[in-house]
Specification:
The chain is of the alpha/beta class. The chain folds into 2 domains: 40-150 and 285-306, 3-Layer(aba) Sandwich (Rossmann fold); 152-282, Response regulator (Rossmann fold), CATH 3.40.50. Helix content is 46%, strand content 19%. The protein is built from 10 helices and 12 strands. The strands form 2 sheets. It has a 6-stranded parallel sheet with strand order 2-1-3-4-5-11, with helices on both faces. Strands 7-6-8-9-10-12 form a 6-stranded mixed sheet, sandwiched between helices. α2 (54-74) runs parallel beside α9 (285-302), α3 (90-103) runs parallel beside α4 and α8 (266-274) packs antiparallel against α10. The longest helix is centred in the N-terminal third of the chain and has 26 residues, at 4-29. The chain starts with a helix and ends with a helix.
Length: 337
């Protein structure tokens, strides 16, 4: 039989060994170079509506640029993980939110194709400690803490006002409206109709609102088909600039049918120069990315939220007079020579 002293010695030896092992583990966690603490890593998920839509390509560029710039500012390592579906699909967006939550992201920025479908997934993410901000298209009944983007009713109204100005306040018009289920576009259509009511010598064609899949090709097809079937349409309010993201989308002689459009991406500027479009109303597409990342970092690192839940970006009016100057912004934003 071993003596109590021997047993005590064995226990002490085990405790010492455990201490050495723990010390070894703790040393492995220490930074190796220069004694500087390792940078905190922040993982942000970014979900646009569709990769086929150029505005979300611009937004992604903005998010990645902001991650680099603000990472240096805050002394953190920021990774942006893009989970935008190839084509619009609210169910895939919801699945992306849930996958990012399982992945352990710190924050998510999302433009909602359809609010009701993504709201439960957003709420689950928030319940697990993920900060969520919406951009461009909101889910107002979700637990997201902020929204950044256009005031959509104002946007629709301004588009119609610009079209009315170009048409001299008279004529038959139509509205190009994108995805019928998107809450932001529903509000833009409502704003456009409200504005149209101010012009007694203008009327909405019957049918007057044309929905379509939000790709340049499908949008251009929708405009061409609608115009051929309804030759009395004299003006178009594009509440999104989808057909103008491709070339030769407007088949009529420049100026013969008036167009006012939302968005002002590089591909659209040629339509201003040619006279096929009267006015573009530029949303802050690049800023959807930069501002979303900034708002998320303020929340994640400082627990600060915007004074107002809805952070509205003003629209920029782009016409033939200022198109060249405006185009220089895109060269800077997308770092093109």
């Amino acid at each position: 039989m071993k003596s109590p002293i021997n047993k005590l010695t064995q226990v002490t030896a085990l405790l010492i060994a455990a201490g050495v092992a723990l010390a070894g583990c703790s040393k492995k966690a220490e930074p190796a170079a220069g004694g500087e603490p390792a940078k905190r890593k922040i993982l942000i998920g970014f979900i646009g509506k569709s990769l086929a839509n150029d505005v979300f390509q611009a937004a992604q560029s903005g998010a990645q640029a902001a991650a680099k710039e603000l990472g240096a500012k805050y002394g953190v390592d920021i990774e942006v993980e893009i989970r935008t579906p190839n084509d619009e699909d609210a169910t895939k967006q919801a699945e992306a939110v849930e996958a990012l939550t399982r992945r352990g992201v710190d924050g998510i920025a999302i433009s909602c194709s359809e609010a009701n479908t993504v709201t439960p997934s957003i709420d689950k993410a928030v319940a697990k400690g993920v900060s969520v901000v919406c951009f461009d298209s909101d889910a107002p009944n979700s637990k997201r803490f902020a929204y950044y983007g256009t005031d959509d009713k104002v946007c629709g109204a301004k588009t119609m006002d610009e079209l009315a100005k170009a048409m001299g306040g008279k004529g038959t018009v139509a509205i190009l409206a994108g995805n019928q289920s998107a809450p932001n576009l529903q509000n833009r259509v409502a704003g456009a109709k409200d504005a149209l009511a101010k012009y007694p010598n203008m009327k909405l064609n019957e049918p007057g609102v044309f929905y379509h899949v939000e790709t340049p090709e499908k949008a251009a097809e929708a405009v061409l088909s609608a115009q051929n079937a309804n030759p009395g349409i004299q003006g178009w309010a594009f509440i999104g600039g989808w057909p103008l993201f491709t070339t030769d989308a407007l088949k009529w002689p420049a100026g013969s049918i008036k167009v006012a459009s939302v968005d002002s991406l590089p591909a659209q500027l040629g339509y201003l120069r040619s006279g096929h479009v009267e006015v573009l109303l530029g949303q802050d597409c690049y800023g959807w990315g930069t501002k979303s990342v900034e708002i998320l970092l303020e929340k994640i690192l400082k627990d600060q939220t915007p004074p107002d839940v809805r952070v509205v970006d003003p629209l920029t009016r782009v016409s033939k007079e200022n198109v060249d100057e405006y185009g220089k912004h895109w060269e800077q934003w997308l770092k093109k020579s």
